[in-house]
Amino acid sequence: MKKTLALVAAAGLAALTGCSVSAPAPAGPSPSESVAPASGGTEPAPSAPSGAPAAASGAREACERFNSLFAEYAAVRADDAGGYEDIYLQAEDAKDTVAGDLRGLFAALSLLAIDHSSTAEAGGAPAQESRDAVRDAVFANSGTCTAEGVTLRL
């Protein structure tokens, strides 16, 4: 059981490492491509990057959702495996609504919740690696959230 949990935690940590890398900015048009000027002096609204989810929510909403989910996580009884699984599912759903580094917030929280779920009935605590992943994700996104007027809380 401990080996399985360690493998799940290691896989989750590896996934988080992938989430924490910033994607490069899209390249501008190459010299052979022409850019048509906007007619009427207005520019079209920027579209979401092709890799972004269609229902991507704003950074402010994502930061507030993380704070809300983390507060729910903290309120779960220590022996309530089902409660931690509910947080896991909500964090996974929330992860699909954001793009970029903000996905790491929810990926880390889902890892922490499922890790805690597996140890809850025995009265155990989540692995330190899971707790560290959440802390690292919060630090990585604190600038973005603070710029949106939201302070991430642990």
Instruction: Report the helical percentage.
Output: 55-70%
Biggest β-sheet, characterized?
Answer: none
Shape, per Cα inertia axes: elongated
The stretches of 5 or more residues where confidence is low (pLDDT under 50) are 16-56
Q: Which structural class is indicated by helix and strand composition?
A: mainly alpha
Q: Assembly type of the shown chains?
A: single chain
Beta content:
under 5%
What topology emerges from the helices and strands here?
Elements (H helix, E strand, L loop, with lengths): L1 H18 L39 H17 L5 H15 L6 H19 L7 H20 L7
Helix pairs in contact: 1-4, 1-5, 2-3, 2-4, 3-4, 4-5
Note the main attributes of this structure.
mainly alpha, 154 residues
Question: What does this molecule look like?
Answer:
This is Lipoprotein. With 154 residues, the protein is mainly alpha-helical. It has a domain at 59-154. The protein has 5 helices and no strands. The two termini are 28 Å apart. The relative contact order is 0.18.
